[in-house]
Structure formats: C-alpha cells, structure tokens
Amino acid sequence: MLVRLLRRTADTLRGADMLRSVTGGLFRVSARATPRAGNGCGLLCHVTRRRVSGLASRDGPFNSVRLEATGTFHSPDLVQAISKAKGAGRSSVWLTLSGHQTHLLPEALSAGFRIHSGGGEEVECYKWVGSSEDKVPPYATATVAVAGVTTDADGRLLVVKDRGKRSSWKFPGGYVDVGEDLGAAAAREVREETGVVAEAASVLGVRVVEGRGRRGDVKDLYVLVHMRASTTAIEVEHVEEIEEAKWVDLPTFAAESEHPLNRYGAYLAMQALEAQAAGGDGVGLSLDRVGTLADPAEKVAFLRPCEAKPVP
Hints:
- The chain is an alpha+beta fold.
- It has helices at 2-22, 75-87, 105-110, 182-194, 250-256, 260-277, and strands at residues 27-36, 40-49, 55-60, 64-69, 92-98, 114-119, 122-128, 142-151, 156-162, 173-175, 198-212, 218-229, 242-249, 285-288, 302-305.
- The protein is 25% helix and 37% strand.
- Residues 18-27 have low confidence and may be disordered.
C-alpha cells in the first residue's frame, strides 16, 4: 500500500512539474495523503492558480521607481510595490499605462496613485512615498510657441498673413516641437511659412497669457526670436495655412500695426538692428549652449543678455 502511494505521489509531482512548465508557473499543485476505510490511504491533489503580477520595475530619475505594466495586475500588487519602494527609501513610484491598459486605471487609483499627466496614448500616474511633503511638480501648465521676427540685410521685416482668417499681417511662427530649442523652432517656422532661411540672433521678449486650456490653468508662452535672414526669396511651403508672405519696411510696420504683439516685436527688432549697427550683439537674450551642455542631445540652452560677455 505504501509503495503504491509513493508511486502515485511521484506521478502526481511529475505531472505538477509539467503543468508548471507548460503554463509558465501559473498553476500550483499540492498533494496530501488522506485516510480511507480499512486502514487504506489515498492521495488528495489540489490545483490552484497562482496570482502573477503583471508589473516590472526599474530605477527612475529623482530617486523614483518606474513600474511597467507587462500584463494584468491588481491593487494589492501595486500596494506591494509601493511598500517595497518605501522600504528602500525611494521618493516616488510611477506607473505608465498605454491606451489598451487604461482599464487598469481603477486598480491604480485604489492603491493610492494619482493621475499626473496624459497625452497621446498614455496615462501617467504616481504615488509619493517619500518622508517629506510631496515634491512632484504638477503636470505641464504651459504651451510654448515662437515668432520669428525676421530682418534682412536691408533692415526689412518679414511678415505673413494666415489663410481664411480676418487677420492682419504678423510674424511667422508656431508651436515648438518636442525636443526642439527656441532658435531651431523659429528657423523652422520661418522656412515653412515663407521659404526664407534665417538664423536666430536673440530672444527679444516673451508674451505670457494666463487662463488658457480647458480648465483655465495653462499659460501660453509666446517667445519673440529675432532672426537674421540669409536668403530673401519667398516661397510659401504651408500654403494651406499661409495665404501670403512679404518683406515690409520695419519702421512703417512698427508705427502702423494695431496688434500689440506685432508692434512690440517690431520696435524691439528696430532696437536690435540699431545696437548691431553700433557694434553690439543686439538686444534681448542670446541663445547659448555652454561647456559640456553643448551637446544638442542634452536639450539644454541658456539665455544670456546680449550685453553680457559670453561664458567661456
């Protein structure tokens, strides 16, 4: 009897190993002997499904932990990850969910995560676990666009008119792309809207408008960049947006323009040209890349007053 029981046990364990192997460890098999009538003994097998967490973790910036949803997870899995991060002295735990994983968002909220930001096909949540007060900044609350206040060697100003709008002549410009610095963005917008090739000289100023966005909590930053044209031929690339582009007399445009942004930028451009004619670098802020941060991959730029000496 004992020999038969041991053989059955061995067969059961081999079957359990095969089940674990085929299912990637998803099932667990346990067996125990049970008494039977007549001094007999049987074998009771119990198959259970193991709860496997669909979370992977890695170190993140600012002493954080980044969680990646590799499959389905539940609130207890997140609570365990939070506890582990807290025990390791981390400051925050972050979780990013792609579009097809957003059904898991309630699990994250149940575990104490907060929605931080979202865009495209992702939602990013976080949980502060540091001993100090929450130091995670809120989601981005500003949009950044540039205007290319472009002048040529003769002191003329480049302006455009939008298609299908009752708008006056204005500077070419638009939103800054992700990973793009101000000078590059202004040069791209000028080229796309007029065909003119120009290089950034300085930042003349920044217009700040409050109360934008769906909830009125977004700032609109419009950066006026003085551009020096190296070509003057006009060929509009984005004809679906721009009706016309032309060169105009700068002082006349500054005096006659009714839009405050146009007038503001034109007068600053006049001052920049006067400063350059006097041997200076212009007015406003120069766009610098300094030292080890000169690598464009760093995406770091410095704005230096034109009258200040360059940093060695």
